[in-house]
Amino acid sequence: MSSIRQVQVTFDCAEPERVARFWCEVLGYVTPSPPEGFSTWDDYNASLPPEDRDTWFACSDPSGVGPRLFFQRVPEGKVVKNRVHLDVRVGTGLVGEERLATLEAECTRLVALGAVRERVLLADEENESCIVMRDVEGNEFCLD
């Protein structure tokens, strides 16, 4: 049996670069350098046929620990709840009011980047509090 060494998370979206740059800001990820021979991604896109421009973008964890995120343009819009979503782990190890304050501070930062706050799920007997949000194209994610 082979062992899996890396995972890439792929997002279907309308504007790959816009969504990728949002997630770079959320996670502290970076975008790759443009392909060899191009000084910018705009130069690279301009070299492509119109139908192939802006069809994908990617970003990665500069430390190499987190998964690469890949964003691909699809013709259809988002119509239902995500079956998979990211949990942005900003409150790990925190409980109660300290956890909520940390989640709220990060929520405020992300709303300024274009995210939308959906709702707070308060702690119960099994789970700590989290905040359900949406990214710049409406994809759900949680601040956890």
TL;DR of this structure?
The protein has 144 residues and is α/β, with parallel strands linked by helices.
Order of helices and strands: EHHEEEHEEE
Distance between the termini: 33 Å
Structural class: alpha/beta
Mean of residue pLDDT?
Answer: 92
Radius of gyration: 17 Å
The number of helical segments is 3
**Could you give the order of strands across the largest sheet?**
4-7-6-5
Largest sheet: 4 strands, mixed
DSSP strand content:
15-25%
**Morphology:** elongated
**What share of the residues lie within helices?**
10-25%
Low-pLDDT segments, ≥5 res: none
Number of strands: 7
The quaternary structure here is: single chain
Topology, pairings included?
Layout: E1 8-13, H1 16-27, H2 41-46, E2 56-59, E3 68-73, E4 86-88, H3 96-112, E5 116-121, E6 130-134, E7 140-143
Parallel strand pairs: 1-3, 4-7
Antiparallel strand pairs: 2-3, 5-6, 6-7
